[in-house]
């Protein structure tokens, strides 16, 4: 029964991942990340993704602050923030977030305030979606590990 | 061979420490492998590295700098998976401090482009200048302009985020390539091969023509010249693009001067093509034109910094025009051109490099006689000295020297101090104290000179009616060097009266401005041309036979040829020897000299020569550096000497090896000056 649970959880995970890939939320870089996880750092993926969340929220706050501030926005700074956001997003394989960043940056380079605001909202939306889905994924993963952990001593 | 074993041992120890903090054993690891490679023939250098590399990339010491912690963590993990020894750092300034504190503890630097505390390119530049490590830039921004900026600043690679593990696996190649190229440049001084070309990117064609100065380089230049000559004669304005195969902007002296002043105004690191273009305000010039020129300019600077360190090795080949197989370095060329080994075109190619113009354009008819004369003269003298007695020519040399040089020495001192007035003293300091920097300073001052010179070009033009209105920089330079002192007449009288008279006519008019200009490098060209070359060839023989006292003049001339800017000063310093104004130093010098002579026989080594230059400089240049710089040159000398004794057979390579050690010994001086000063020249 427990063994079945593990399998089901693994299947759930795979299904969710497949969905995220299909939607273009994630790309193969995320798989690279998973491959980097080994005995020396067993929680590597969730560790990195949590760093990413932390940093991204900081960036999103800054971006919003810069855009909301006054009539005048520091587009150069926005560009720099976006560049970082792009870098980290693409590094964990958050494809859609990255794509929105590209659009956002294009708008900021044209000093297109309206475009920037739209892009920011989209970015926040995409980010939240990603965060929820990844949390879901990690949740299943955790359950799976637990289930496997429970089953393991029972075998021996 | 003992060194080889040591290297292998060091490599193993670095493996064992790979998890640790990069201790001393690991630190010297690759450096010493470089030494080994340098002391072997170039063909075996590669295999040498292979031998070491049964585990080679393992333990590669990588410093990762990225303000994005996410990326930093991922990169760390990836690099660890490659079994590299990773140090991460989220601030550029911290990274820079780390690199400065733990010099030689890293093999390669991975740096993000955008960082809040310091621009990644700035870091790249500083690293390139100070520690000469391969730097790989990373950014999410993969647009061509961004990548181009990386190349322009001298990044050896530009990785676009997301970075994949496979890309990182391969970064060791940059370390090897860099070392390898250094070795090669030491051995073949200047002959560029694929690796280097690859590194230098778009610069290819110009680079090949100017730096590929092996024997075939010479041929090429000659060929080129004969092809272009006809058009060249007719073409005075040189703004006519018909000489170049594809339509492109001809960077005339004026244009280049505008460019340089624009760059100076902006500051080298802030100079972007667009802004330069705005400042230059030249109709018809495109951003791309400026960008490519800027890139060349930066590469040029970068190369200077690289070359400076190889100076010792390069100049060693200098002494061996005896050996036809020796390939010539950029700096040798100047010397050799003077001694008639290389047509003046090649020389001009050197200067043409930056302007990106066809070589031959640069040589107005006027100048060739001067050089040619020098070349005629050189060979003439040698047979005499060889054929007749060894004692006599020596005496003759010396008397020439002692008679005429003291004055020129004084003039040089004046120049230098004048230089102080004009340029921030830092620069001059750099130029003067370290032999290692000599190459750098040479070219550097070349460039300074260009700047100044071009500013004064209009005056000059009016004075140099006999020259075509488009005199090359080389040529401008030459008369101006001669201008320096009123004494020029006197010292040239010793060797080449004819050319004296030619140049003297300019001198009268051009007066002080030029003496300012010519203070450093350019003189050497002339000097070499006019008096030192004769001695140069004989040095090998002389040092073998003659007593210490009489050596000094010949020595001086040799080193003079080797590194142009230093050379001039060296020459002037010799005078001091001749006159025995500083007996203490002179004696030291001679001892070493003597030991060299006896050991090597025919090839003279650069190490001691440069040191001579050093000390000489200390002695004859007044208060400024005298005190500080004495120590390092002296220790250098000892080094050189030791090396000689260890492996007496491989004379030719020694200077390069010894030099590396020298760099370490004399480093304090070097390091302090090297980086900022180059920058300051251009940002000033």
From TrEMBL, chain A:
GO terms for molecular function: histidine phosphotransfer kinase activity; protein histidine kinase binding. One of its GO terms (biological process) is cytokinin-activated signaling pathway. Signal peptide: none annotated. Gene3D superfamilies: HPT domain. GO terms for cellular component: cytosol; nucleus. Keywords: Acetylation, Cytokinin signaling pathway, Cytoplasm, Nucleus, Two-component regulatory system. Functions as a two-component phosphorelay mediators between cytokinin sensor histidine kinases and response regulators (B-type ARRs). Plays an important role in propagating cytokinin signal transduction. This is Histidine-containing phosphotransfer protein.
From TrEMBL, chain B:
Residues 243-302 form the HTH myb-type domain. The keyword DNA repair does not apply. Residues 185-203 have a biased composition (Basic and acidic residues). Its main location: nucleus. Residues 61-176 form the Response regulatory domain. The keyword GTP-binding does not apply. SMART domains: REC. GO terms for cellular component: nucleus. The modification 4-aspartylphosphate is found at residue 112. Residues 185-245, 454-476 are annotated as: Disordered. Residues 230-240 have a biased composition (Acidic residues). Residues 454-466 have a biased composition (Low complexity). CDD domains: REC_typeB_ARR-like. Keywords: Activator, Cytokinin signaling pathway, DNA-binding, Nucleus, Phosphoprotein, Transcription, Transcription regulation, Two-component regulatory system. It is found in: Nucleus. GO terms for biological process: callus formation; cytokinin-activated signaling pathway; maintenance of shoot apical meristem identity; phosphorelay signal transduction system; primary root development; regulation of anthocyanin metabolic process; regulation of chlorophyll biosynthetic process; regulation of cytokinin-activated signaling pathway. It comes from the Eukaryota. GO terms for molecular function: DNA binding. PROSITE patterns: HTH_MYB (PS51294), RESPONSE_REGULATORY (PS50110). Binds the target DNA as a monomer. Belongs to the ARR family. Type-B subfamily. This is Two-component response regulator. The lineage of its organism: Eukaryota, Viridiplantae, Streptophyta, Embryophyta, Tracheophyta.
């Amino acid at each position: 029964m427990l063994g079945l649970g593990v399998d089901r959880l693994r299947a759930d995970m795979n299904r969710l991942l497949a969905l995220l890939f299909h939607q273009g939320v994630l790309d193969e870089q995320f798989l690279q990340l998973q491959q980097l996880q080994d005995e020396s750092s067993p929680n590597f993926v969730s560790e990195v993704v949590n760093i990413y969340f932390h940093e991204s929220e900081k960036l999103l706050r800054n971006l919003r602050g810069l855009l909301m501030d006054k009539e005048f926005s520091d587009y150069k700074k926005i560009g720099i923030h976006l560049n970082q956001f792009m870098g980290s997003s693409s590094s964990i394989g958050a494809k859609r977030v990255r794509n929105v960043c590209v659009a956002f940056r294009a708008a900021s380079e044209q000093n297109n305030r309206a475009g920037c605001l739209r892009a920011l909202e989209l970015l926040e939306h995409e980010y939240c979606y990603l965060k929820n889905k990844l949390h879901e994924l990690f949740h299943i993963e955790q359950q799976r590990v637990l289930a496997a952990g429970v089953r393991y001593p029972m075998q021996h | 061979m003992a060194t080889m074993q040591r290297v292998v041992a060091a490599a193993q120890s670095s493996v064992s420490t790979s998890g640790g903090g990069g201790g001393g054993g690991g630190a010297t690891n690759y450096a010493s492998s470089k030494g080994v490679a340098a002391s072997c023939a170039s063909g075996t250098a590669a295999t040498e590295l292979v031998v070491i590399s049964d585990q080679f990339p393992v333990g590669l010491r990588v410093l990762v700098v990225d303000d994005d912690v996410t990326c930093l963590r991922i990169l760390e993990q990836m690099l660890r998976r490659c079994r590299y020894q990773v140090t991460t750092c989220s601030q550029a300034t911290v990274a820079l401090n780390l690199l400065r504190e733990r010099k030689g503890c890293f093999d390669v630097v991975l740096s993000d482009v955008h960082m809040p505390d310091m621009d990644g390119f700035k870091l790249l530049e500083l690293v390139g200048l100070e520690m000469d490590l391969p730097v790989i830039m990373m950014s999410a921004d993969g647009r061509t302009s961004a990548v181009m900026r990386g190349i322009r600043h001298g990044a050896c690679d530009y990785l676009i985020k997301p970075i994949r593990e496979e890309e990182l696996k391969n970064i060791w190649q940059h370390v090897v390539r860099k070392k390898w190229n250094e070795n090669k440049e030491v051995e073949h001084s200047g002959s560029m091969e694929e690796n280097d070309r690859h590194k230098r990117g778009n610069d290819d064609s110009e680079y090949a023509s100017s730096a590929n100065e092996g024997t075939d380089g010479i041929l090429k230049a000659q060929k080129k010249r004969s092809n272009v000559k006809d058009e060249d004669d007719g073409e005075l304005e040189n703004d006519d693009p018909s000489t170049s195969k594809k339509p492109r902007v001809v960077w005339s002296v004026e244009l280049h001067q505008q460019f340089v002043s624009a760059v100076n105004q902006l500051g080298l690191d802030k100079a972007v093509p667009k802004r330069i273009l705005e400042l230059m305000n030249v109709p018809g010039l495109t951003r791309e034109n400026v960008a490519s020129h800027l890139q060349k300019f930066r590469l040029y600077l970068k190369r200077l910094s690289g070359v400076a360190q190889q100076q010792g090795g390069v100049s060693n080949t200098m002494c061996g025009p005896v050996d036809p197989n020796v390939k010539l370095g950029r700096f040798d060329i100047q010397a050799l051109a003077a001694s008639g080994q290389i047509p003046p075109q090649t020389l001009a190619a050197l200067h043409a490099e930056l302007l990106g113009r066809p070589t031959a354009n640069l040589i107005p008819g006027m100048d060739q006689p001067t050089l040619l004369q020098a070349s005629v003269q050189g060979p003439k003298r040698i047979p005499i000295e060889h054929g007749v007695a060894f004692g006599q020519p020596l005496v003759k040399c010396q008397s020439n020297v002692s008679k005429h040089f003291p004055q020129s020495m004084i003039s040089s001192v004046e120049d230098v101090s004048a230089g102080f007035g004009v340029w921030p003293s830092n620069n001059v300091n750099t130029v003067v104290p370290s032999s290692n920097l000599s190459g750098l300073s040479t070219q550097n001052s070349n460039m300074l000179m260009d700047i100044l010179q071009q500013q004064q070009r209009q005056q000059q033009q009016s004075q140099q009616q006999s020259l075509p209105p488009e005199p090359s920089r080389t040529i401008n330079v030459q008369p101006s060097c001669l201008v320096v002192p009123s004494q020029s007449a006197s010292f040239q009288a010793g060797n080449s009266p004819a050319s004296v008279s030619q140049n003297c006519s300019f001198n009268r008019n051009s007066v002080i401005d030029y003496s300012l200009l010519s203070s450093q490098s350019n003189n050497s060209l002339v000097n070499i041309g006019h008096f030192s070359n004769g001695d140069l060839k004989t040095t090998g023989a002389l040092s073998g036979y003659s007593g210490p006292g009489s050596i000094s003049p010949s020595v001086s001339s040799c080193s003079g040829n080797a590194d142009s800017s230093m050379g001039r000063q060296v020459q002037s310093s010799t005078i001091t020897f001749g006159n025995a104004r500083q007996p203490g130093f002179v004696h030291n010098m001679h001892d070493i000299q003597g030991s060299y002579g006896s050991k090597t026989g025919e090839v003279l080594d650069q190490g001691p020569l440069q040191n001579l230059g050093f000390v000489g400089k200390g002695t004859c240049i007044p208060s400024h550096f005298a005190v500080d710089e004495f120590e390092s040159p002296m220790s250098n000398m000892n080094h050189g000497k030791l090396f000689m004794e260890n492996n007496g057979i491989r004379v030719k390579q020694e200077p390069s090896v010894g030099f590396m050690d020298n760099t370490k010994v004399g480093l304090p001086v070097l390091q302090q000056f090297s980086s900022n000063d180059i920058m300051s020249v251009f940002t000033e």
